[in-house]
Amino acid sequence: MYRHLIVLCLGALALGGCQAPLPDKDYSLLKAEAPRSILIVPIVNKSTQVDAPDSFLATLPVPLAERGYYVFPVNMVKRTMEDDGLSDADLVASADPVRVASLFGADAILYASIENWTTQYAVISAATIVDIHYTLKSGKTGKTLWDARVRTQYSPHASSGNLFADLIADAIVAAIQRAHPNYLPLANQANALAFYTKGQGLLPGPYDIAAKKTVTQ
């Protein structure tokens, strides 16, 4: 599912203008450690949406598992951390990664920070924005193995050929989007781009079926 989303995401990003491709990431540390399990810790929230961390946290386990990693159950992780005095996401982010990983025996820890999770409204238009910073750290050394920052945006626009009708439709859609913005599709798109983009994404883990088929062919 997430692999198919990449095509849609890249097409949407292309509409925003062409940018020079980024150089491939340095994967030397990630390859050397070859983590098998990933611990997802509570999400740091820099937006004004109080429910954003829990909503986004729920989108992470599936794409990471599909990428080929064992992912610790997020609800169990949250309860365990609360029992250990690590209930605050900012406190977890500043804690020693090695200590945090040792609580679960995790090979690596995924930290995520919500930089933006808003809907911007301007008269007859609205833009829903999700901006996430991902960081994967070693559970053995605490060093950063991989990181990425992805910004996705959705701006609905009607196009019927009738300018007046389109303006009315845009205003109605914008009002609905402002009242009930749907962030989860954008969050899923951000995850797809972060984990699967060639040369930038997270390398496939040991349980990635597609990667195993490629190696054996």
Q: What would you say this structure looks like, in words?
A:
The chain is of the alpha/beta class. The protein has helices spanning 2-15, 28-33, 52-57, 61-66, 74-83, 89-94, 97-102, 163-179, 184-196, 209-216, and strands spanning 37-40, 44-45, 70-71, 108-122, 125-138, 144-154. The chain has a domain at 26-117 and 130-151 and 183-200: Rossmann fold, CATH 3.40.50.10610. Residues 2-18, 157-177 and 213-217 have low confidence and may be disordered.
- Name the CATH homologous superfamily of one domain: ABC-type transport auxiliary lipoprotein component
Rg of Cα set: 19 Å
The CATH architecture classification of one domain is: 3-Layer(aba) Sandwich
Tell me the span between the first and last alpha carbons: 23 Å
Please write the string of helix (H) and strand (E) elements: HHEEHHEHHHEEEHHH
Q: How many helical elements?
A: 10
| Strand count | 6
Overall 3D shape: globular
